[in-house]
Amino acid sequence: MGPSGAGKTTVLRAIAGLRKPDRGRIALGDRVWFDSAARIDLAPEQRSVGLVFQEYALFPHLSVRANVAFGGTARVDDLLERFHIAPLAQTKPGTLSGGERQRVALARALARDPAVLLLDEPLSALDAHTRGVVRDELQDLLRELALPTLLVTHDFGDAAALADRIGVVIAGRLRQVGTARELIDHPADVFVVSLTGGNLLTGNARPRAGGGSEIVLDAGDVVQSAARASGRVAVAVYPWEIVLRPGDVPPDATNEIVAPVASLTPEGGRVRVRLGPLTAECSTEDVERLGLHRGDPVTACFSPAAARLVALDGELPDLADVSAGS
Amino acid sequence: MSIEVTEPRVEVPAVVIDGGGGRAGRAVGSALLALVVGITLTFLALPIVALFAEVPLSSVPDLLSDPAVIKALEVTARTNLVANILILAFGTPLAYVLATRRFRGRALVVTLVELPLVLPPAVAGIGLLAAFGAQGLFGDDLKNAGLFLPFSELAVILAVTFVASPFYIRQAITAFESVDPTLTAAARTLGAGPTRTFWRISMPLAAAGLVAGWVLAFARGVGEFGATIVFAGNVQGKTQTLTLAVYEQLDANFDVALAIGILLVVLSAGVLLSYKMIVSWRDSTSPSSARFGPSSSTST
To answer: Is the pTM of this model over 0.80?
Structure first.
């Protein structure tokens, strides 16, 4: 997972044999496909990958059936059935919808009985409605296939839904590998926080006697964190861990930041509330109960446990390309 | 409270802006344009029309059955058949390599391949003589092999191939370049080696462009004159193609020359028509990855 231009597609192409890395080693189990030191570089047709391109790359001059059969004729009928494209067998790809073309591309990649499945942004080319449906289908498919699969996406939601482990790639470097839970609980750096949809507040931390730390934010507020750190940090807190209260409320054990509501955006049945430096997420009932309107002051509360700390070098880097969401 | 507004009364002297002069100017411009267009079209059409007007069309078949014409037709047919086979067989792989590989000096190679396009045909003939003639670069080698090229059909084949191949190769390069490289990449990941990928993906998708290029090369080959007459000479029955026959019949039998001209015009018109039809078919079956169906556009 990573933003556009991070190098994710390049990795897939290198694994498939379409790009030659300068240095390194690519092996599946004990089958070495590329080794710059040993001068091994197998051609794509000698490897065993099923690559589904971002644009699907269906052969426009061949029928759906011929496309699927291109990789191998043994399982064509089974695959056409499995992906519900048997009725389309004789049509050319030009008239198919995005979802249908993706199914054909998947069937074609699997026809070769590959040892590893490579999916390049499989959901990016689909409209919002089709995406949800296809994501669920992909979930089922991946579980059923039990095939080693590398899936490339720029959407954390897709990654969390489809992957057992997520590797965050930014600007050509792998920043963190872990489950979705691990990425959120223990983000390695500010890029991971941004990619997973977290808020970032910069400040300076000081360890506290009873455990945890106290952070003086650049903006002025002071927050407590359960994590111990000292020096320049960014406090990472996720929108769904923020509780909103209207008006000014006397401080208690949890962290609080007061700011006027900048915007209220409905998204997927919830509402994203932008206030000051934070974006919080709550239900539409909460918005009504609290009587939230643009410009009203509101208090954002979060616990010390939700205030994760990430080491920071000076100021926040430019995260414009890295922020979560498609 | 109502406010009354009255227009001030102003005496305006009647001034007529000259529309008459402008209108006349535009008319002159249109007339001039029509004249230029008319002259140009007439100039371009006149030779063709004159060809058909100068000789009664009913006598054309008889004129064309003149033995010189028959021999020229046979020479043209044989030499162009072989030449076109050579052009396709050698030009296609070259075009494919130039279209799909990037290497240092590629631009130079492409220019070299395109050179015969701009080379005066007579110069092409001289060049071929310098290479393959009796005193040429390979003259001795050819003599030892028993081949004497000047005044032979092989020379005609070489001349036609030389001048016509760039027409095909250039178009073929464009045709292969227009094949989405993602498609060939997909074929490779599906287990197809470079050869299978070429025949099953690149060729079918480039086919329309290749045929369009070949049609042009064919027309150029049939119409070749300068290189043929310089390199192969003008020997009836051996090196005299239809165009060379026109040249000879100018003095001998002008009507025969006209008849051959008509034949070649009809052939050329057929070629042009085929080319246009193929190009419009190619554009309608363009293999470029367009967006289909109700899906939204992708992110980068």
So the answer is: no
pLDDT score for B17? 59
Write out residues in chain A with pLDDT < 50, as ranges: 249-250, 253, 325-326
Q: What are the E-state strand segments in chain A?
A: 25-28, 31-35, 40-41, 49-52, 116-120, 149-152, 166-170, 173-178, 199-207, 213-217, 222-225, 231-237, 243-246, 255-267, 270-275, 278-283, 297-302, 308-311
Instruction: Enter the tokens of residue B25.
Output: 């100017």
Q: Between these two residues, A15 and B147, which has the higher pLDDT value?
A: A15
Chain A residues lying within 8 Å of B204, measured CB to CB: 61
Residue B164 CA: distances (Å) to CA of A48, B74, B140: 44, 19, 27
pLDDT band at B296 (very low <50, low <70, confident <90, very high): very low
Domain that holds residue A271: 198-311
Instruction: Give A318's DSSP letter.
Output: -
The pLDDT of residue B167 = 94
Comparing CB atoms, the residue among B193, B204, B295 nearest residue A130 is B295
CA distance B261 to chain A (A): 41
Question: Is B205 near chain A, with CB under 8 Å?
Answer: yes
Residue B10's pLDDT band, with cuts at 50, 70 and 90, is low
CATH number, domain at A288?
2.40.50.100
Q: How many domains does chain A have?
A: 2
CATH number (domain holding residue A110): 3.40.50.300
Note the CATH architecture for domain B60-284: Orthogonal Bundle (1.10)
- Total CB pairs under 8 A between chain A and B: 101
Q: Is B287 on the interface with A (CB under 8 A)?
A: yes
Which chain B residues in 113-152 lie under 8 Å from chain A, judged by CB atoms?
Answer: none
Sorted by where each begins, the domain ranges of chain B are 60-284
Average of pLDDT values for B165-194? 94
- Note whether A297 and A237 are same-domain residues: yes
Q: Are residues A25 and A169 in the same domain?
A: yes
Contact residues for B138 (Cβ-Cβ < 8 A; gap 6+)? B131, B132
| Contacts A111 to B, Cβ<8 Å | 190
A70/B295 touch (CB, cutoff 8 Å), yes or no: no
